[in-house]
Amino acid sequence: MNIIDIENKHTSGLYTKQNFAIVRGQGALLWDSGGNEYIDCSSGHGVANLGHAHPKVAAAIAEQATKLVTLFETFPNDQRAALMEKLTTLTPGLERVFFCNSGTEAIEAAIKFSRVSTGRTGIIAAMRGFHGRTLGALSATWNKKYREAFEPLVPDYSHVAYNNIAALEKAVTDNPAEGGRGKTAAVLLEPVQGEGGVYPADPAYMEAVRELCTARGVLLIMDEVQTGFGRTGKLFAYQHYGITPDILCVAKSLAGGIPMGAVLLGAAVKNLAPGLHGSTFGGNPLSCAAAVAALTVIEEENLPQQSAEKGKYLVEKLRALNLPIVREVRGLGLMVGIELKQKVAPYLKALQEKRIIALNAGLTTIRLLPPLVITYGQLDQVVAALAEVLAAEISTTDENG
Fold it and tell me: Do residue 311 and residue 296 come from a single domain?
């Protein structure tokens, strides 16, 4: 059996499998088992900000693997200490860190921390928001296709329109309730909605959200699982808005591709005590060594600035195509959405045939999340492929989008 046949035989059924197997990557490129080369504009759903197989991250992983791979966080460790110091230096006002293994785990922890910190239970998230698939994070996620099969979900969650401060003001409640139920503990937002269509927050909205949360004693949780580590043109997207959240959730590219998540905590987060929460693998030395190396690369190669400059270049090139099928091109840094006037699934397939791997963001938006190390020549190839594909007559009768 070949790779594809074996996976199809044993798969859980939870993924729609592609008809080619990826076996190698370098920078912004991937190669399949037949030796075909692809430009990766998905980055493993936003993980490979540094590109694939970055030599400095690979070297750090290899070296640490010969020393110590796993260690529970009750035992201090040199790599964990180095990462804690580096992360908190990069996020002034967020002086403490909880380590876990993924973005959805970071969101789960943030929800628990906000409830125990405030004594309240209400969590307000945004329509179109995506925060993960475990039950707490799923309860904050908006799209019903992710939610319906698992209802009833966790109580005391509500959703309001994004970029609408009046809706949020109305939803945040301080009304007395037994045991704090229903009272708002936290507002949970993405600074750029990814899965929901690549919608950046308005600066005035984000400033008003921060003011509202402070005034009403509500914690502001920023979900930067996808937007963090240079993706939007700054190290973290909240830095575009001149605010600081109370809780910052990060993951994806934190450890250069090694699974890792983190929750950074400000002074408003209280009442955390030993045994209240934990993670067996969280903060293990191997992941921490990879993360220290990844953060060093981000600084040395100035990847946030590269993202800002390349993102501007890409958006200008895409808008200049002026294609009738395109409703809007939007984004921040190298997080770019191309909203079409019809479903994107056939166009993503056509792009793959031209050796470009991209994502959807909902039914009608093509999402581009290339590694921040992508070259301008590779961006030109992506634009040329998009120009050809989006100008073609392609059937969109597939109702699954």
Answer: no
